[in-house]
């Protein structure tokens, strides 16, 4: 049996000695899925799979609504986004997120992606979960996120109250205006852009 040309080219990629990126992804942190019926999907993930609800966005915060679900101490491992009627049944991946161990790695990821012409769709801090992140598309348009600092939820199930969610529209704003309990320290100050 002969391998196809595409398989041969992919195997050759494995052997290429390309420079390592300046960050190490430590895990798939969370997956966000679009769904056709938010309530039905939340019921499935909680009642069938045993996930617990951390937080919920109403339609004023996320069109179609959004529910953050956890199965360990991470604020969310799966989030579900409700579909709008005009979505026309396009139900698929909203985004997938990868955790890194340090905030410096998020800053280096931003630099690395930009140097390779990858368009950043967002960099800063989101609300629920308060992780500091960069968001960008892969070649097929799937949205990806590299993040640090996702809230952890104890066995008491208490999450950060919405009044403490502080969105930030840049990495620099996120470190200049931290949330309670998060220590956004960048060790390599050269990574921080000056206004």
Secondary structure layout plus pairing:
Elements: H1 5-15, E1 25-35, H2 38-48, E2 52-57, E3 66-70, E4 78-82, E5 93-100, H3 103-115, E6 122-125, E7 132-137, E8 143-148, H4 171-176
Parallel strand pairs: 1-4, 5-8
Antiparallel strand pairs: 1-5, 2-3, 3-4, 6-7, 7-8
Structural class: alpha+beta
Which residues sit in consecutive blocks of at least 5 with pLDDT less than 50?
none
The CATH topology is given as 2,3-Dihydroxybiphenyl 1,2-Dioxygenase, domain 1
Mean pLDDT: 88
Strand numbers in spatial order across the main sheet: 2-3-4-1-5-8-7-6
What percent of residues adopt helix (DSSP H or I)? Answer: 10-25%
Give the number of domains.
1
The count of helical stretches stands at 4
Do you know the CATH architecture? Roll
For the record, what CATH class applies? Alpha Beta
Major β-sheet annotation? 8 strands, mixed
What are the secondary-structure elements, in order, as H or E?
Answer: HEHEEEEHEEEH
> What is the approximate shape?
globular
Architecture overview:
This protein is of the alpha+beta class. It has a single domain (26-186), classed as 2,3-Dihydroxybiphenyl 1,2-Dioxygenase, domain 1, CATH 3.10.180. It is 21% helix and 26% strand. It contains 4 helices and 8 strands, in the order αβαββββαβββα. The chain has an 8-stranded mixed beta sheet with strand order 2-3-4-1-5-8-7-6. Strand 2 and strand 3 form a beta hairpin. The longest helix has 13 residues, at 103-115.
